[in-house]
Each structure stands twice: as structure tokens, then as C-alpha cells.
Amino acid sequence: MYFGLSEEQEFFQETISRFLEGESTIDAIRNFTHGNNSDFPESIHSGLLELGINGLIIPEEYGGLEQDLLSAAAVSETLGAGVAISPFIGSYVMAPYAIIKAGSETQRDKYLKGIVEGSVRFGVGLTEFVASREGAKITIESKKANGRALFVFDANNATHFLLCDSSGQLFIIDAKAKGLDIIELTTVDKTSSFVELIIKDVEIDRLVNQSNHQDITQRVVDLGRLLIAADSLGASQVMINKSVSYSKERKQFGRVIGSFQAVKHMCAEMTANLEPCYSLIWYTAHCMDHIPKESHLMASHCKAHVSEVASSIAKTATEVHGGMGFTDELGLHYWFKRIGMNRQLLGGVDTVREEAANSQGF
Asked: Which CATH fold topology does 122-206 show?
């Protein structure tokens, strides 16, 4: 039995990769992060929309491609490899997944078609459900919400936001709603967008088909964790590839550094640690679609383990490059910072491992 990506999924990855290699170069990313070319993210986003990433998991009846979650993980891996400055995980997977699972037919028709057409883009903020903070509670009363939502991601030019209260009740608010204050956040990862929402008597569109709030919201969170892990996987693979290439070119004492045993071991160890992460992500995606009783545990393991491995690779790859690894000219730090931000998003390693332990009754 073959277990891996299909030819169609690999072709989709290659198509996205070629686009990013041509349009989202290190020079272009550097130029944007230095405050120039503010239109760059939207130009990349528009190109990715033409490739169909927005309708990937949406059913065909709403105009989507109706692919499985393994396809979504494959796309997320490729976007991480290209450090793409474009929303995907929240806007085009978590939000439509939540609407498919918990939305009414009217909500599906409105939002899913809007996502496919490109007129609807979601930011997602589920921090309160994952790891609530003091003073950031969201309450719902009489179809209106009040409170704060922290670290809402995929927020750049979002038309709507998918949020939840402390009980796990999912709801949607319009980005232009009266009483909503959007505060842009600056993080170390300049390739991602985050905002904080101040919510004061904002009208909400509650996802109505939630017999058990926490179960559905947990599945949405688990899906996000899977895709974040896939994003880090792609970024890690690129850092390894760059380390190997650099070690074949950089010379010290009249020899390429790749001939030194210490450097060989560093590259080999990174590769050996990352390789099992592919099957871990693939199996987690399979569970999300076909073995729901295992999906929470696998998503927790996946997010925690890949985060640890990716962080180690980011550190080691930088060491292989020596002083050059820290320079803006090389641009290795874009992958390094992406991995670091992914490690904390939707729950850090300790938080996620505690959830995995609790799910097994430990």
C-alpha cells in the first residue's frame, strides 16, 4: 500500500512552488519587510488565488475544488517553504472548514461562495479557546459580542473574522462592523499578519449547527495546528537544503566546509530528524478526514513534535551558515522567524502536550 502524496497533490505543490520562486524572491520579501512596495503581499495573494488555494477544501456545489485535508497540508507545506506573504491556514482552510461543519445552509451559501469568488477573506482568532489570557475574555449576549481577541492571524485585508467565546461557541463578525476596533500587531515574523480586536457591542453571525461547542471548535483548532506544522515542515526543509548547498560552496582552510565531519553530521542529523515528520503530518491529515477519534491526539503530537524539530533545524541551519546565517543579505532569518512564530501559534509546545496528556487521561 502506498502512503504519501498523490501525483495531483505533488503537481499542485510544484505549481505553487514555481510561482513563489518567480514572484516571491528573497529580494522582493526583503524590500517589503523594509517598508517598501506595500502592494507586494496583495500581488502574491492574487497570484495564489488564480491557482485555486481559496477553494481547495470547499465543496464543488459552492464552486470549490472539494479536496481532502491532506491536499491542504501539502499546500501549507509549500507556502511555508516559500515563506509566502499570503493568508491560507485561517482564511481558506480553518474558516471554511468551520462553516462547512457548523454553518447553516444560508451561511454556507453566503461565505463559501464568497471565499471562492475572492470577495470574502477571513481572519481567525481562537486564542481564548486555546490559551486564554486575563482581560481578553469574549462574551456573547443578545446576538452581540464584547471583549478582546488577541493574535488574530491571516488578518491582512480580512473582510470577516472567525472568533469564539470561552465556551467554544464559534461566530463571525464583519470587519466593518460598528463597534469593532482593529489594532495591527507587529511580530518578529514579517511574512504573517496579526491583529488585536477590541469588540464593543458588535453584531455577530453565530454558526448555528453546534450541538457541542467545544468539540467542533477543537476540531477547527486541531486542523489549524496540523497546517501550521506543515508550514514549519516546508520552512525546515528549505533551511536544510540551503545548509547543504552552502556547505558545498563555502571554503575554509582550502576545503569546502561540507567535507568537515562536524558539518556533515549537522546536516545529516537535521535530515534524519525531519524525515519522519512528513509521515506524521500525512497521517494526522488522514485522521482529520477519516479517523476523527484519533485526530485530536495526532494533531497535538504533530504540532508539538514538528515545532521542536523545526526549531532545532532553524538553529542548526543558522550555525552551518556561520556569520552569514545572521545577515539580512542571506535572508535565512525569514524562515527562522516563521518557524518561531508557528511554534507559539494556537498553543505552544507545553500547552499542546498537556492537551495530549489530558486527552489520554494522564
From this structure: Butyryl-CoA Dehydrogenase, subunit A; domain 2 (2.40.110)
